[in-house]
Amino acid sequence: MLQPRTKVAIFSLLLVLSASLPVTEPAIGVNWGTVSFHRLRPSTVVDLLQQNKIQRVKLFDADPSALRALEGSGIEVMVGIPNEMLAVFSSSSAASDLWVRQNVSAFVGKGGVAIRYVAVGNEPFLSSYAGQFQNYVMPALLNLQQSLAKANLAGYVKLVVPCNADAYEADLPSQGAFRPELTEIMTQLVSFLNSNGSPFVVNIYPFLSLYGSTDFPQDYAFFEGTTHAVTDGANVYTNAFDGNFDTLVAALTKLGYGQMPIVIGEVGWPTDGAVSANLTAARAFNQGLINHVLSNRGTPLRPGVPPMDVYLFSLLDEGAKSVLPGNFERHWGIFSFDGQAKYALNLGMGNRLLRNARSVQYLPSRWCVADPSKDLSAVANHMKIACSAADCTTLNYGGSCNGLGAKGNISYAFNSYYQLQMQKSQSCNFDGLGMVTFLDPSVGECRFLVGVTDTSFAGVGAYWRGVLAWVLVLWSVWVFEV
Questions:
Q1: Three-state SS across 15-32?
Q2: Arithmetic mean of pLDDT over the chain
Q3: pLDDT tens digit string along 353-393?
Q4: What is the distance of C-alpha 257 from the center of its chain?
């Protein structure tokens, strides 16, 4: 294999030769999150991407297993830097040099990974963070830009900062402006992005608007027409996505960057965990969004100019994510955790429907359920233990398994824990209240899962252990630097 420096030199030559190629049409990409109890092999996920002709993928960290699997695939990648790392990058150029060498330079090049963007933080200006990461963003960007320049990659790998839509506000799209406390840093950010040829990345979630307000018109969240259109001067908005997008366009215009390219970093609709989160709604929203974007109609403030790219959130369900925002947080995937399509969806890539993951290695087809011959009156503590470890969010109000009844709820909790424990016999004991069955207890849309065999990097802890390890390494570099 070529050494990183040689690979980068060849890669830079290829970039010069391709500089005159025409700009491609907007593409539909996906977010690949990995906060899951049952994680597919990265090679299986990359094959899933290729089977569905998905050419853009966004990662939330620089997982080396995922990056190695993406080598040679031709899929363009956005690599993420967690917010927790921004402080050290803002203080240490040596730390940013090290990160770029190990997570970008080591992978790009002929036959390597097509890393096009590095996402510096993830929604670092989110209002609920109360400014926790705000002061680190610009210094971290400047250090990382210098690191990319040293690696001869600044002309190709672009730095971006994915922002939540709460960074701007308005009663009408044309009145859009960034939150007052963000005006200064947003002016600095968009100036930096413009100077370096980077787009503005924003996450837009009409679902959250609907979920968070009983007054939000449900049909306005979709793309099929509404009786609650928003009139803004000569412009009429029939869906929340366009209204939100143009509010950002207006905010950028106020800063003097009205033509800045915009990428949608996250957008989607969950399939479970809330009343308005279901398969029908998710398909209607995502298909409507895809059709809208690929039609090139644009929006009232940008007619004929759709977003550069759109990254659906998300590729797979992540059953170990925090449910603080809501139980739906674990159910955003267009595929279930095991790479099986949840509903018919045409991504506009030449395939009529989604294709399932291949060669998924499952545990044996057996489930843990409540023993019907036992007295279950003392089961409450067992259910609490099971659901505190495993994912039981579909049992709650609005979930697909909400109507199972008492015994069904117990069985679902028992099985979720049993699969999490890789079907170890003792994990279906529950003081004699559980039993193993070979008959699938799934009912309707309520699926009793069977786990996958690969656990080499499964679980929520793996993600945070990786982040913590990098933070410790980078801080040690910073200490020696000063």
A1: HHHHCCCCCCCCEEEEEE
A2: 92
A3: 999 999 999 999 999 999 999 999 999 999 999 999 999 99
A4: 27
Tokens representing residue 157 in the block: 């790998």
| Res. 324 pLDDT band, cuts 50 70 90 | very high
| Distance between CA atoms of residues 358 and 23, nearest Å | 33
* Residue burial 306-320, b: 16+ Cβ < 10 Å; e: rest: bbbbbbbbbbbbbbb
| Best CA proximity match to 327, nearest among 410, 418, 390, 392 | 392
Residues 6+ apart with CB under 8 A from 473: 98
pTM for this prediction: 0.91
Write out the catalytic residue numbers: 123, 266
DSSP at 375: -
Cα–Cα dist 379/354, whole Å = 40
Distance between CA 310 and CA 312 in Å, rounded? 6
Q: Comparing C-alpha atoms, which of 204, 374, 415, 397 is closest to residue 289?
A: 204
Secondary structure letter of residue 453 according to DSSP: S
DSSP state of 398: T
